[in-house]
């Protein structure tokens, strides 16, 4: 039997399913190693299997899903080496974005960044703080005005979703994160690209340390993982 062509409704539902699954991955509802069964997901999301299949294909293209023998589509687990490499690349890419933003950002864009960070500092709601932090970083990347850098950061960001909940859900990280944003903003306002890049790298490295501590406390970073690069069930 020939597969019927996808309708506009399928495509719209596929986008919706993709967005919802991404959100579940971001919040840790779908953890690494979770099996993505089309029938189960279709029933849970209240749609047919066709858009679910399309959403899973897109997640696989993003590098978030792999097909394992006897399991099928499964949310990837990242190795210890991959976690290290991701944060190294994040520091490089977002550090570059900060350096470019110091040159290219308009005064209006800098005021917008300052406003987002002020909201983040004033908030006591962890969900809002995480949302505002995500907005701050996205706005900063936009001010760099380099579409190729934007695409590279977006692709890396999708892989980072496998790590689950933001490190900003750690209470100790909230205050320091906002302070690091302030250092970055001062460098941007002074049009100091070198200082802006250094401030962003410091910010990302601090988040990296928190992430590794969380994984270590959860028992995921043992000596075996360091020695052979084995899977880290994040």
UniProtKB/TrEMBL annotation:
Residues 11-78 form the HTH gntR-type domain. InterPro entries: AsnC-type_HTH_dom (IPR000485), GntR_C (IPR011711), TF_FadR/GntR_C (IPR008920), Tscrpt_reg_HTH_GntR (IPR000524), WH-like_DNA-bd_sf (IPR036388), WH_DNA-bd_sf (IPR036390). PANTHER family: TRANSCRIPTIONAL REGULATOR, GNTR FAMILY, TRANSCRIPTIONAL REGULATORY PROTEIN. It comes from the Bacteria. Keywords: DNA-binding, Transcription, Transcription regulation. The keyword Coiled coil does not apply. The keyword Hydrolase does not apply. This is GntR family transcriptional regulator.
């Amino acid at each position: 039997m020939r597969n019927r062509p996808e309708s506009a409704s399928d495509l719209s539902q596929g986008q919706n399913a993709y967005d919802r699954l991404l959100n579940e991955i971001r919040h840790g509802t779908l953890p690494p190693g979770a099996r993505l069964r089309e029938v189960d997901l279709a029933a849970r999301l209240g749609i047919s299997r066709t858009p679910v299949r399309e959403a899973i294909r897109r997640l696989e293209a993003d590098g978030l899903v792999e097909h394992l023998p006897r399991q099928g589509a499964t949310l990837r687990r990242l190795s210890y080496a991959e976690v290290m490499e991701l944060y190294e690349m994040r520091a490089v890419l977002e550090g570059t974005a900060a350096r470019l933003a110091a040159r290219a950002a308009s005064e209006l864009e800098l005021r917008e960044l300052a406003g987002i960070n002020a909201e983040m500092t004033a908030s006591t709601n962890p969900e809002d703080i995480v949302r505002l932090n995500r907005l701050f970083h996205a706005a900063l990347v936009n001010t760099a005005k380099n579409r190729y850098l934007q695409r590279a950061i977006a692709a890396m960001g999708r892989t980072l979703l496998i790590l689950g909940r933001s490190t900003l859900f750690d209470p100790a990280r909230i205050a320091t994160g906002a302070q690091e944003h302030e250092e970055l903003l001062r460098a941007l306002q002074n049009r100091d690209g070198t200082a802006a890049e250094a401030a962003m790298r410091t910010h990302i490295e601090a988040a990296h340390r928190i992430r590794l501590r969380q994984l270590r406390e959860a028992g995921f970073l043992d000596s075996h993982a360091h020695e052979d690069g084995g899977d880290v069930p994040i």
